[in-house]
Design goal:
Blueprint lengths: L3 E4 L5 H11 L3 H9 L5 H8 L15 H13 L3 E6 L3 H14 L6 E4 L12 H9 L2 E7 L6 H9 L3 E5 L13 E3 L15 H15 L5 H4 L2 H10 L6 H16 L3 H9 L9 H18 L2 H9 L3 H34 L2 H4 L4 E4 L8 H12 L3 E7 L2 E7 L6 H6 L5 E6 L3 E7 L3 H15 L8 E4 L1 E2 L7 H8 L13 E8 L4 E3 L5 E8 L5 E6 L6 H4 L5 E12 L2 E12 L5
Parallel strand pairs: 1-12, 2-3, 2-4, 4-5, 5-6, 7-8, 13-14, 17-19
Antiparallel strand pairs: 8-9, 9-11, 10-11, 14-16, 14-18, 15-16, 16-17, 18-19
Helix pairs in contact: 1-2, 4-8, 5-8, 5-10, 5-14, 8-10, 10-11, 10-13, 12-15, 13-14, 13-15, 14-15, 15-17
Length: 573
């Protein structure tokens, strides 16, 4: 599928010149900073040198004082406290972090992860009944709860208070909880609205430490769990999240908790420096797989354990769940692709809405993402659960999926999510009407540009400008992620040096060696899944290349290489 290169607007020249002068760096790097809203020496110093002192006062969050008071009361009265969270990575890391920390201060504490298939997402009636049976009077709900009004009322009838730590968009009415911590509340003036669910739980504990004069270092010991949440939940790596991710990666790279250490080991990742991408593609899916295939409780047990033997056994079990997940993902994705390709009407639509009652509920979100990549349009994949159609939705860049689903809310039993990802449940008989209404909304609101996959390019660059000093400073932009993506560059009119070749078992990849005519500079790179472009490279015509810059370490020797994202051939004879 052809991709459009979208070139970011260049920053103001005077600001770029100022940063180049005060920081003594290349204008290209200064432009990258200005694009990220960094315009002064002080802002650049904070960006390049993150500090935990830069974290906001947790009591700026609405209801934080109420939450801390209620927790202190529970500890004082020796109440039974449950830590409750969802079965995905954000939920299980939230529970592991809060449980691990509070278990040092609460004798009567336990955790609860709802079963994906029996209870579904969020606060469940079954869970509340369990808390009542166990004599619990306080539940801390993490990564869920902000739209669970009726269930919180049900808990209240049973004498159970809830402290909600959520980061999803609230409904019109907040639950009647003791405290509802959510930076996305309309009446909440907390400066950073983009925390993960685990991040909100962390701020709650930060406030608890602050109020009770507990040294924050004891809480910072769990930042490796928090960065796994930040990376896996795809929240912006900017503001407070970037500070937390920076120090979380430091902890993950130097002294991870026992559970994460064994996940790293079974994923074959020892001996390397971990990045946000490593968490997204290697660590997160394994934690997620427990809740998708078996039970999210297993993920929490692994993340809170301190015994190497137990952690080793648990990590093996979770890895097996991940293998099962990958098989289901592969098979169901192919079935969904076949369903579209064999039906001209489905193929020509602006959206994809598929329902198959036998598809595995634990992987439909992944399948929705795969289909979005293949057809690049808003996608909803549904299966049957408890007599209803339940599904996961994914969007394309710039299209508000949540609003599209909300426009069909009268056909739904419930739904939740945000602009790019959502979940929904409806009566099976409503599927045809939903398909048509959703399709019509997409037709009416999606733009032409939103239907073409695009690569956002930060800056044009000459190959001769890519050197060790340039990369040394570029590395300080890390950690990379949403709102601080790895910079993408374009170089114009480069040529094949004559040594580029296909590589890989099926010759589907390209190992390239490119030369810049005006400087004679030569750079090497790798272009995955672009083996079919070798002939065009070898014509002798110049072309444009789009890439990121990576460090390649081989036999102890470090070299810079291009990770090619795309090539265009506008100069053909």
């Amino acid at each position: 599928m052809d991709k459009r290169w979208s070139i970011k607007e260049k920053g103001e020249e005077d600001k770029i010149a100022h940063l180049s002068e005060v920081l003594n760096i290349d204008a290209c790097l200064s432009n990258l900073l200005v694009q990220r809203g960094i315009e002064t020496f002080e802002e650049a110093r904070s960006f390049f040198r993150p500090s935990l002192d830069h974290l906001h006062d947790p009591f700026l969050m609405k209801d934080m004082d109420k939450a801390v008071d209620r927790l202190n009361l529970a500890i004082q009265n020796n109440e039974k406290v449950y830590i409750y969270g969802d079965y995905d990575v954000d939920g299980t890391t939230s529970v592991a972090l809060v449980y691990s920390f509070l278990s040092k201060y609460i004798n009567n504490i336990d955790f609860y992860i709802p079963n994906r298939y029996e209870e579904g997402y969020g606060v469940s009636i079954k869970g509340i009944d369990h808390f009542a049976e166990q004599g619990s009077t306080l539940v801390i709900a993490l990564d869920c709860g902000v739209k669970a009004g009726e269930k919180i009322d049900y808990a209240k009838e049973k004498g159970i208070d809830f402290i909600i730590c959520d980061h999803h968009t609230p409904g019109d009415t907040l639950p009647n909880a003791v405290a509802c911590l959510d930076p996305k509340r309309k009446d909440c003036e907390y400066p950073d609205k983009n925390l993960s669910g685990c991040g909100v739980g962390f701020k709650f504990l930060q406030a608890y430490c602050q109020f009770n004069n507990i040294a924050p270092d004891s809480l910072y010991n769990y930042l490796d769990l928090l960065v796994v949440s930040i990376a896996s939940d795809i929240v912006p790596i900017s503001g407070e999240n970037r500070v937390l991710a920076h120090f979380g990666l430091n902890k993950l790279n130097t002294n991870p908790c026992v559970g994460l250490k064994h996940i790293i080991k079974i994923a074959g990742m020892q001996g390397r420096e971990f990045t946000i991408s490593d968490i997204v593609f290697k660590i997160g899916p394994r934690i997620n797989a427990a809740g998708r295939i078996d039970s999210g409780n297993d993920a929490v047990r692994l993340l809170i354990c301190e015994d190497d033997q137990f952690a080793s056994e648990m990590s093996i079990d979770i890895d097996k769940c991940n293998d099962t997940r990958k098989g289901l993902d592969r098979d169901i994705t192919q079935q969904a692709l076949d369903a579209i390709s064999n039906n001209p009407e489905l193929k020509d639509r602006k959206s994809t809405v598929l329902f198959e009652p036998e598809w595995h509920k634990g992987v439909i979100g992944i399948v929705a993402s795969r289909l979005t990549e293949s057809y690049y349009r808003p996608t909803i994949i549904m299966t049957e659960s408890k007599g209803f159609a339940t599904g996961s939705a994914r969007s394309v860049d710039g299209f508000d999926l949540y609003k599209a689903i909300d426009s069909c809310s009268d056909l739904l039993e419930n739904f939740g999510g945000h602009m790019y990802a959502a979940g929904l449940t409806m009566k099976i008989e409503n599927i045809p009407a939903f398909q048509e209404r959703f399709e019509q909304y997409v037709i009416d609101h999606i733009t032409e540009d939103q239907q073409i996959p695009q690569i956002e390019v930060d800056e044009y660059i000459d190959l001769s400008n890519i050197n060790e000093k340039f990369y040394r400073i570029l590395k300080q932009f890390r950690p990379f992620g949403p709102e601080n993506l790895k910079p993408v560059f374009v170089s114009h009119r480069v040529f094949d040096y004559g040594t580029s070749k296909t590589v890989g078992k099926d010759a589907s990849h390209l190992k390239v060696e490119l030369i810049e005519e005006k400087s004679g500079c030569i750079k090497q790179g790798i272009a995955f899944s672009m083996g079919d472009k070798l002939e065009k490279l070898q014509t002798g015509n110049p072309f444009d290349v789009c890439f990121t810059i990576e460090e390649n370490v081989y036999n102890g020797r470090s070299t810079l290489q291009m990770m090619v994202k795309d090539m265009k051939f506008p100069y053909e004879d």
